[in-house]
Amino acid sequence: METILKIENLTKDYKMGEVIVQALRGVSFEIYRGEFVVVLGPSGSGKSTILNIIGGIDRPTGGTIMCQDKDVSKMSDRALTIYRRKNVGFVFQFYNLVPNLTARENIALAAELSSDPIPVDSLLETIGLADRGRHFPSQLSGGQQQRVAIARAVAKNPDILLCDEPTGALDFSTGIQVLKILKEFNQTQGKTVVIITHNAGIGRIGDRVFYIRDGLIDRVEHNAEPVPPEEVSW
Q1: Is residue 214 very low, low, confident or very high in pLDDT (cuts 50, 70, 90)?
Q2: For residues 232 and 150, what is the distance between their CA atoms, to the nearest angstrom?
Q3: Residue 231 CB neighbour total at 10 angstroms
């Protein structure tokens, strides 16, 4: 399988007053093109730090992050901006939609950043909101807003979709709908999807599950037969 992300000896330190907190303590792993990866760990384990660094939102203290042939760890601020724009899509726990833009406009705004975007109307159809494209975020439910946020992340046709607790603010049935959309994007578009979560049940849908504890990878498990999202419970 083709490696799309290669992380070697990744460290991240934060200074809190006179105390140095080691959020990551030498993390190494590879993620393959088209893979669906779930990163599991309790609050404070370092999983969000990993996502922010591989997404170019934060910089590591040490180690390397290779995205295909790009060394993300050595990029300038300008190069990181281009990397985030072209290579990575983000889905967060809270939707961060532009409130004075419609659902369609929120998605189109991201599509304009790409030279090869996915058509907005096609995405609205995929997320089941073809009839709600003219609605503003305040007129949509939480689950609908999260579906728009996913479509916005997907619109620019990124190589990697990074999802930080995408079901964290949703009820169970709505969370399952969101996971189904993420899985469909992975399977139909062949894109790499990485979900970080504290919810162990979600691990069953991943090709591989990375367990993070105290800034280190505790273990990696391979799911020979990942289950569909509708079979997951928590």
Answers
A1: very high
A2: 20
A3: 11
Domain residue spans of the chain: 1-87+159-234, 93-158
Residues 84-119 pLDDT 10s: 988 999 998 888 899 999 999 999 999 998 888 999
Question: Tokens in use for 126?
Answer: 């995929």
Residues 6+ apart with CB under 8 A from 100: 136
Per the structure block, which two tokens stand in for 7? 């992380």
CATH number at 1-87+159-234? 3.40.50.300
- Given a contact cutoff of 8 angstroms between Cβ atoms, the answer to whether 109 and 152 are in contact is yes
Q: Angle, nearest 10°, between helix axes 103-111 and 142-155?
A: 20
Q: What is the pTM of this model?
A: 0.92
SS3 179: helix
